[in-house]
Design a protein that fits this description.
The protein is α+β, with helices and mostly antiparallel strands and 463 residues long. It has eight helices and 22 strands. Strands 2, 3, 4, 5, 7, 8, 10, 11, 15 and 16 form a ten-stranded antiparallel β-sheet that branches. Strands 1, 6, 9, 12, 13 and 14 form a six-stranded antiparallel β-sheet that branches. A four-stranded parallel β-sheet has the order 17-18-19-22. Strand 12 and strand 13 form a beta hairpin.
Length: 463
């Protein structure tokens, strides 16, 4: 068995009618919908399959269409030449007379035949200051083990987007059959491993799913609009967990992380040395001697922005000014460009801290655009970190554009800006959008993450 064979295995729809006259409903599938007319079943048939050679691998597209509805699914499989990682994702589209509700739309869904072997799931979970705790659970027959993250902004909390499934006794770093999966997604996610027997023949199977979490409500998909799931990367190993890790590392460095094969610079961050209380002299004094000790970069952390009553300084600390991305000229009268030049003159690169997904309710941004904040219309606003931090509504194109324009001006102040520390300190606790219609509120979780990726793409494209 190979990763490609697993990826190409039948991606069944939940509620799909089995061909050959059997009126049996598939209970273990990766796609579940409610059609515009209220029907809940699918009967997908392959209509086309293409294979395209690419410089770094090959791409296989499998097109399926429902027999009775103008509803289509395209399964994508990407195989890489230089590593044993295979990526899968799904594109869903329809031309029905009204919106379709997506109850589940997994990026990966497959059933693996197992010969009476113990099945275990290894995942990582935790929170602030206690990240990446290893947890392993055995999956009993008839049982499902779920790894769910519903914070909306930080995938590593609760349940990391990556996990491993082992088959058999004695599996360790060098021995045993292991399936590794990593969902390429920072938003809400749902990963499940189920162990069951088929109704006929009693053959034991293990189903593995990975996709966007939709337990808060179905995603409403309009006619003519495509819904593309995040990619899921998988590795199959016959020689233990270590091989899974090495293949993922190779793939991530070569194809996912920007400059993934380069050494990261040794840096000094201003945070622990000065927190919010600093001046230009404080910062330049911190830079002195860093290069001589082997340091290569100086990063200006929190406290450089805001103005007036919402200036981010030692008096207010982290309770005001977030979202007001303009240099505090009282603290830094010469601006970021001057500070970057000071770092460069000492042989150091210059980096900057931002947290663009968030704002404080005590900020010029919140005063001017209260509708830019995620909030539920009929509930008091729940306040996060510092008693004032909330999340911006990235489902709204105006919010994304406004945030990008502020960031672009700030980043443009320093032509030698080499690094951006993009922080994220608040979960989505007010899951409501003034931009989305009432019947589209469950779309928030997916649309928010796609909006974030839109802003990140603009930043990366320009610099």
């Amino acid at each position: 068995m190979t990763g490609l064979e697993i990826a190409l295995a039948g991606y069944l729809a939940f509620g799909q009618l089995i061909p050959q006259g059997q009126q049996e409903i598939v209970k273990y599938g990766g796609l579940q919908v409610i059609h515009a007319d209220g029907a809940v079943t699918l009967r997908l048939k392959e209509t086309d399959r293409t294979e395209t050679a690419e410089p770094d691998g090959r791409h296989i597209a499998i097109c399926l269409r429902d027999e009775a509805y103008p509803f289509s699914v395209t399964r994508h499989v990407k195989e890489w030449n230089d590593c044993a990682v295979v990526e899968t994702w799904v594109e869903i589209r329809h031309d029905e007379k009204g919106p379709v509700k997506l109850l589940r739309a997994d990026s990966f869904a497959s059933a693996l035949a197992v010969a009476n072997a113990p099945v275990r799931v290894l995942g990582l979970n935790g929170g602030w200051a206690s990240e990446a705790n290893v947890r392993e659970s055995e999956v009993a027959l008839g049982q499902t083990v779920s790894l769910v993250s519903r914070h909306g902004t930080r995938d590593a909390w609760e349940s990391n987007a990556g996990f491993m499934v082992s088959f058999g006794e004695g599996v360790d770093e060098t021995r045993g059959r292991v399936l590794g999966l990593a969902l390429e997604w920072t938003g809400t996610s749902d990963k499940r491993v189920s162990r069951f027997c088929r109704d006929r023949g009693q053959e034991e199977h293990t189903s593995v799913f990975a996709g966007v979490d939709m337990t808060t409500g179905p995603y409403t998909l309009d006619p003519g609009v495509s819904f593309v799931t995040p990619r899921a990367a998988l590795v199959w190993s016959e020689s233990g967990r270590g091989e899974v890790s090495r293949q993922f590392h190779r793939w991530a460095r070569n194809h996912v992380m920007p400059h993934g094969c380069e050494l990261r610079p040794v840096l000094l961050n201003s945070w622990e040395g000065s927190y919010f209380t600093f001046t230009e002299v404080t910062l330049t004094n911190m830079m002195n001697g860093v290069a001589e000790m082997g340091g290569e970069m100086f990063v200006l952390d929190d406290g450089w922005f805001g103005w007036g009553e919402y200036a981010r300084d030692h008096k207010n600390q982290d309770t005001v000014g977030l979202g007001d991305w303009m240099v505090n000229r009282e603290k830094l009268p010469h601006g970021l460009g001057w500070l970057a030049n000071e770092a460069n003159s000492r042989g150091l690169k210059f980096g900057l801290w931002v947290e663009p997904e968030m704002t404080n309710v005590k900020s010029h941004l919140a005063d001017a655009h209260p509708d830019w904040i995620l909030r539920e219309a009929n509930r008091p606003l729940a306040l996060g970190r510092g008693g004032t931090q909330v999340v911006l509504d990235y489902t709204n194109p105006a919010v994304r554009e406004g945030t990008w324009q502020m960031l672009d001006r700030v980043f443009g102040e320093s032509a030698s800006l080499a690094y951006v520390k993009w922080d994220s300190n608040q979960n989505i606790v007010n899951p409501g959008s003034a931009y989305l219609a009432a019947d589209r509120q469950p779309n928030l979780w997916y649309d928010y993450t796609m909006g974030l990726y839109d802003v990140l793409a603009k930043c990366r494209a320009k610099r």
